[in-house]
């Protein structure tokens, strides 16, 4: 007889693996594309599937939460019978990206197929597979022990792929209902398939759009050429002046408030096996960035200012001999620890204004985003639980990594609910998210369920008091 | 009874003014945009209109001339019954610039409308109005006298707005057919509405288009930002580096071969009443250009390098956090006396190549134009006839001026046919050529027809022998 309760839960899950695959295939057959109203039926089908599954697992309080305006509701469910144990808000999303271009899929996007140790379907890695892995861990736990070791609130969003427009309102309107000690997210992705890692931070972001105007209209390059300003020359000068020869951003004060990670964290970063030239070469790019930093530092520790679009003048076939009177640019920043979004925004705007010569009209036409960088506190109990679970599962101490991208969820829940987020997804970043032939490694299912069973167990052994110092509301 | 034959021709023309306006409106309704294949039907409609008009006027030998490859044919017609009189090749072009941006037109670009003494339509000043003015002078002459005072060959080009790619071959293949004593051009423009002037020179031109590529695809600005090149940053650096702080072109050798006009010509230039700040201010621009030269020198004596279009990345609504992998630019140069087009082209390409860092792919995708600057000899009989006609029409001696723009024709016919060109257009340079709301002053129609009737008369009183010293073939 197996007397280790965790081993019994694992055995239950393994015994149910074939049923799990069938369930996954059914969930993936729901065509829940949130961006396109033509898929409304698939969105409803995914909610119905999840409602039935959660009900069968013994969850209660199941309901739809909306932001008070048009949009796809989030699904909520709870299991709150673990008196004295911490409460986790477990996050996932049931919407997926559009399957287009359909002709690039080897097998149909909404019919899960296995090939060479990989399962292919739209949404399998982002985020339906990882969500069902988390739910399967809970199902097995309840099946064996008729209980969970912790209190769980589940929030499954329906608008993650469209930028979560309703989520701020959903959090605001249901702050008490969603109150928890921390968020454990089934979304996100493992950085690499060859490294056991836990993500502890992400960069913030913000964006500006601006236009330059040098004359009332496009001018003939013969009749005016050489004697009036050209909006594209001026835009090129402004954009070129935003970085120096060392690829540093020239905005005064841009780097002033940065809090670089401590020496131990930096030592850990440098210890990570990483071939930057190969990483860039895989997408046909050179390894290039701010002088004095490695590629991982550039991605994790250092901020950026990137031009995402720049245009003006004639773009059609052939030639048009105009001196363009208008030029436009969209720029976004990625921000790191210590940088204050509003201060950066103001500094960038002031710098651009200073770069534009007199007589040329500068207009800022948009201002978007402005979320801070996010970092999980190094001693956060949920981070420690995640590290233990990964160690148990993979037999090696996970490396703490960060991502250069922005996780709106982390910033949002920190602001609205005052709690921290740990991403605990078992998809991997190379699994063609948002692209044709999205896949999930079959091995991720075993690993993921085991890690989830373990982390639930570890959290169950913690006290809510351990979380109190980290709760800001 | 009116016994002055010229006065009778003028009266005939004035009597037909309403018919002329209707004819002009019809011609302008032909959407003859040469640069875009979508307008092929409009190009054919313009040719058909001109063929009917010339046939009705009594011209013969009407035919299309092509360069032997794909392209828009030129239209040819002749009236050669003035034995012993000089033969003029009269030039115009029936193609127009694209009407974009359409939303900036007050009234539709292909529907001529009159407002406040101005006629608005795409191509009305460049070059359909001036062409019909020249033809109307001939029509009235023939209607009254049943003859022309000189021999006329008409060449109406269909590719002027795309740099005349077929014209060299058209001239080569039809050198005998097009043989004449000089070219009298209905293209070009009066410099100012307040100055009677004759143009004696123009700048040459040439264009390049190129692309930069920094990666195989657009990259996520979070996952790659700060650690790989951005094609738009690189393009901005290249474009910004093409001019220095004194607005001089940085291409090595760019200015080396320039032959500046002699002291007398420069003294004439400085004597012309010209308020550069007001001139630029009229189009909402600042007066800005190469250090050490006046605005007139910048326009007439000095070469340029202008970016006509520059683009890459996301231009749509909202934000897209990409690192663009491609950037594109269209540039054109205006060349002055002494500059060798091929040498300039090679120097500009080499300079751009030197500005692009290793690891970034540079591709030149187009190479267009490359015509030399042009100047009419000071005692040329056609120049003298033009000055007489302008004196007769406006009652004041015309000032000799130049233009900063390019007539590919002048350089080409000097090379291929060995003859000189006088531009005798009655549009004015401020009439929004190539831009939205292109217009022609209604008064230019009276003035232009009168001047054309007079110059035809004056040439008819000259002998072909006067032209011999200037014919190089």
TrEMBL record, chains A, B:
<protein>
    <submittedName>
        <fullName>M20 family dipeptidase</fullName>
    </submittedName>
</protein>
<keyword id="KW-0378">Hydrolase</keyword>
<dbReference type="GO" id="GO:0006508">
    <property type="term" value="P:proteolysis"/>
</dbReference>
<dbReference type="Pfam" id="PF01546">
    <property type="entry name" value="Peptidase_M20"/>
</dbReference>
<keyword id="KW-0645">Protease</keyword>
<dbReference type="InterPro" id="IPR002933">
    <property type="entry name" value="Peptidase_M20"/>
</dbReference>
<dbReference type="GO" id="GO:0046872">
    <property type="term" value="F:metal ion binding"/>
</dbReference>
<keyword id="KW-0479">Metal-binding</keyword>
<feature type="domain" description="Peptidase M20 dimerisation">
    <location>
        <begin position="207"/>
        <end position="357"/>
    </location>
</feature>
<dbReference type="InterPro" id="IPR011650">
    <property type="entry name" value="Peptidase_M20_dimer"/>
</dbReference>
<dbReference type="Pfam" id="PF07687">
    <property type="entry name" value="M20_dimer"/>
</dbReference>
<dbReference type="GO" id="GO:0008233">
    <property type="term" value="F:peptidase activity"/>
</dbReference>
<dbReference type="InterPro" id="IPR051458">
    <property type="entry name" value="Cyt/Met_Dipeptidase"/>
</dbReference>
């Amino acid at each position: 007889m197996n007397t280790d309760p965790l081993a019994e839960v694992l055995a239950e899950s393994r015994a149910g693996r074939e049923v799990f695959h069938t369930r996954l295939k059914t969930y993936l057959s729901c065509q829940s594309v949130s961006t396109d109203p033509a898929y409304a039926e698939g969105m409803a089908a995914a909610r119905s599937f999840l409602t039935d599954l959660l009900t069968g697992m013994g969850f209660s309080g199941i309901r739809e939460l909306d932001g008070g305006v048009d949009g796809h509701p989030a699904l909520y469910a709870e299991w709150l019978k673990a008196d004295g144990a911490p409460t986790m808000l477990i996050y996932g999303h049931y919407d997926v990206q559009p399957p287009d271009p359909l002709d690039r899929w080897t097998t149909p996007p909404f019919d899960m197929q296995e090939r060479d140790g990989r399962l292919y379907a739209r949404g399998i890695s982002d985020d339906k597979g990882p969500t069902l892995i988390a739910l399967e861990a809970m199902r097995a736990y309840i099946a064996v022990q008729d209980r969970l070791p912790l209190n769980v609130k589940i929030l499954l969003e329906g608008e993650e792929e469209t930028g979560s427009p309703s989520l701020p309102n959903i959090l605001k309107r249901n702050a008490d209902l969603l109150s928890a000690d921390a968020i454990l997210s089934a979304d996100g992705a493992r950085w690499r398939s060859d490294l056991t890692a836990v993500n502890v931070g992400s960069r913030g972001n913000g964006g500006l759009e601006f236009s330059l105007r040098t004359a009332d209209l496009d001018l003939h390059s013969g009749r005016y050429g050489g004697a009036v300003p050209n909006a594209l020359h001026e835009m090129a000068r402004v954009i070129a002046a935003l970085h120096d020869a060392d690829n540093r951003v020239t905005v005064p004060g841009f780097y002033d408030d940065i809090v670089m990670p401590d020496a131990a964290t930096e030592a850990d970063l440098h210890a990570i096996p990483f071939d930057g030239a190969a990483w860039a070469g895989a997408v046909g790019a050179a390894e290039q960035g701010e002088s004095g930093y490695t590629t991982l530092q550039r991605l994790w520790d250092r901020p950026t200012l990137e031009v995402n679009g720049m245009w003006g003048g004639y773009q059609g076939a052939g030639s048009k001999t105009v001196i363009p009177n208008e030029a436009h640019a969209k720029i976004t920043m990625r921000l790191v620890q210590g940088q204050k979004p509003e201060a950066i925004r103001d500094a960038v705007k002031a710098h651009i204004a200073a770069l534009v010569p007199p007589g040329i009209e500068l207009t800022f036409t948009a201002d978007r985003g402005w979320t801070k960088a996010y970092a999980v506190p190094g001693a956060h109990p949920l981070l420690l639980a995640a590290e233990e679970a990964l160690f148990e599962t993979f037999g090696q101490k996970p490396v703490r990594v960060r991502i250069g991208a922005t996780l709106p969820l982390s910033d949002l829940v920190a602001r609205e609910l005052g709690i921290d987020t740990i991403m605990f997804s078992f998809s991997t970043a190379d699994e063609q998210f948002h692209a044709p032939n999205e896949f999930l490694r079959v091995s991720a299912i075993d690993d993921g369920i085991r890690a989830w069973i373990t982390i639930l167990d570890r959290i169950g052994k913690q006290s809510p008091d351990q979380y109190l110092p980290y709760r800001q509301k």
